[in-house]
Every structure is written in structure tokens, then in C-alpha cells.
Amino acid sequence: MKTPLSFYYSDFALEAGVDEVGRGCLAGSVVAAAVIFPKDYKNPFLNDSKKLSKKDRQELDIEIRENALSFAIAEASPAEIDKINILNASFLAMQRAILQLNPVPEFLIIDGNRFKTDLEIPYECIIKGDSKYLSIAAASILAKNYRDDFMIKLAKEHPHYGWETNVGYPTKKHKIGIAEHGITEYHRKTFNSSLQLDLRFQK
């Protein structure tokens, strides 16, 4: 039986879990979400979005939105990723999500080992936090569902890259699509210039 995820890391009354998705993609924005749950909230089914089926993620998305004290989703665009690099763009998306929360959180728990912000809110970085804390798991689900849905919609506009299944990650079909059709306005140019060069030499 799966061990239930922990609730709050801190003793603060309003603690927000924060996570991002899409850092390793060749196309699309990096998306972050932040979630504050009430103190008495419990859900044995919440887990890291990568460990859940699409159906489970969609059902939990509704549950999270109905039960959270506050939640927010934000992104940093491919152009911003190219300008400030993917790590800083991830931090930017996280900060944008946090800024939308109401009430304002008193403490943040961030998935991963690094975070940079000019917000004056104390925080702790937690490696594999989406497998340890309810609010981070919830943030990972909201971010993934939002980003996946957006990339699937874009696949109808740009059908050559397999975004309906790879949602922008560097699969074989995506790489072949870039080699044969070039890149779109949704591609991250700093990621794709070296990839296109590699594919040309492989032909």
C-alpha cells in the first residue's frame, strides 16, 4: 500500500507547494503551479504527476481545484527561455504562480534542489518533493495537465512533431519533424540549433 504523502513541511498556517513541468522539452513554455491546501486536507490518491495515469490526473485536477485554499498556474515562454535560460525561466514561472496566490503564502516548499526569487517569503527546496508532500504533488498535477492540454491543442496547428503524444519532449518523431520541417515559433531556439546541426550530420 502506498504511503500517504505528508502535509505541511513547516509550522506556518499557509504553506504553498510549488512545482514546474516542461524543463526538458524542445518546444512549448515551461509551466509552474502553486497550491495551498487547508490544514485538515487529506487525499491518499495524490502523488507525483509522473506516477499517475492521465485519467487519474484529470480527476485529481478537479479535486485539487475544488479543495485548495488557493492555486495558480503560470508559465515562461520559449522566447523567455531563450533569453534567460531554462533554469531561470523555471524560477520565473514559479514566481509568477506564487504571486497569483490569494491568500499570500507564509512559507513555500519547492520541488527540486534549487530556487531563486526576489520574493520575501521563506522557502525550502525538497528533492523529489512531488513524491513527499501533498501540495507539491498537487502543483505537479495542475502544471502537467495544463501544459499537456496546451501542447495537444498546438499539435493540430503543427502536426509534424508528434506533440499530441510527446507534448514537446525530444522523441524520435519530434527530432525528425524538426529535421524535415524546421522549427516553429513554439520551439526553443537555444535547444534546437544544436539539435538541427546534429540531425544534418546524421543524414
UniProtKB/TrEMBL annotation:
Which Gene3D superfamilies does the entry mention? Ribonuclease H-like superfamily/Ribonuclease H (3.30.420.10)
What keyword terms does UniProt attach to this protein?
Answer: Cytoplasm, Endonuclease, Hydrolase, Manganese, Metal-binding, Nuclease
Task: Offer one example of a GO biological process linked to this entry.
Answer: mismatch repair
- Name the needed cofactors: Mg(2+); Mn(2+)
In terms of SUPFAM superfamilies, this protein maps to: Ribonuclease H-like
* Alphabetized InterPro entries for the sequence: RNase_HII (IPR022898), RNase_HII/HIII (IPR001352), RNase_HII/HIII_dom (IPR024567), RNaseH-like_sf (IPR012337), RNaseH_sf (IPR036397)
Q: Which reaction does it catalyse?
A: Endonucleolytic cleavage to 5'-phosphomonoester
List ligand-binding residues for a divalent metal cation. Answer: D19, E20, D111
Please provide, alphabetically and separated by semicolons, the GO molecular function terms listed in this UniProt record.
manganese ion binding; RNA binding; RNA-DNA hybrid ribonuclease activity
Q: Where in the cell is it found?
A: Cytoplasm
Identify the EC number(s).
3.1.26.4
Q: How is the cofactor bound?
A: Manganese or magnesium. Binds 1 divalent metal ion per monomer in the absence of substrate. May bind a second metal ion after substrate binding.
Give the family from UniProt. Belongs to the RNase HII family.
Protein known as: Ribonuclease HII
Q: Which organism is it from?
A: Bernardetia litoralis (strain ATCC 23117 / DSM 6794 / NBRC 15988 / NCIMB 1366 / Fx l1 / Sio-4)
